[in-house]
Amino acid sequence: MSSTLESMTDVSYCPRCQGFAMEESTLGQCCVCSYSYCTLCRKSFHGVNFCSISSLDITRTVLQYMYSSGQEKKNLENMYGKQLLERQQARMKEATAQQLLDQARVFLSLEPPQ
């Protein structure tokens, strides 16, 4: 029975109790503990709102977004929203550019960074 359930595309494991859960679109519902969760981020179901992202995960997620293409990029946009990802990407690029300028100033002894 376990292998049959695992072969079904609308069945997965519950992130809370590891029981079998039925999935429909972005809603997963555990058959054991009745936990309702988002099938994208596997956290508590949040309806049509984008998945939340912690400050610790933002760098990893934005880098993944920057270096992915096609379906993977679209999946990240569906999870977190294209606007958020592009805004964070621009912030990362700006911060990186500023760090490089500061390092160049120190290296060339032009002026100490403020």
Show the helix and strand layout.
Elements: H1 2-7, E1 11-13, E2 20-24, E3 27-30, E4 36-38, H2 55-66, H3 70-80, H4 82-107
Antiparallel strand pairs: 1-2, 2-3, 3-4
Helix pairs in contact: 2-3, 2-4, 3-4
Shape: elongated
Element order, helices and strands?
HEEEEHHH
Terminus-to-terminus distance: 65 Å
Low-pLDDT regions: none
Largest sheet report: 4 strands, antiparallel
Structurally, the number of domains stands at: 2
The gyration radius over C-alpha positions equals 21 Å
Mean pLDDT value = 83
Q: Summarize the amount of helix as a percent range.
A: 40-55%
Structural class: alpha+beta
Strand content: 5-15%
Please describe what this structure looks like.
- The protein folds into 2 domains: about 1-40, no CATH class; about 55-105.
- Helix content is about 50%, strand content about 15%.
- The chain has helices at about 1-5, 55-65, 70-80, 80-105; strands at about 10-15, 20-25, 25-30, 35-40.
- A 4-stranded antiparallel beta sheet has the order 1-2-3-4.
- Strand 3 and strand 4 form a beta hairpin.
- Helix 2 (about 55-65) packs antiparallel against helix 3 (about 70-80), helix 2 (about 55-65) crosses helix 4 (about 80-105) and helix 3 (about 70-80) crosses helix 4 (about 80-105).
- It starts with a helix and ends in a 7-residue tail after the last helix.
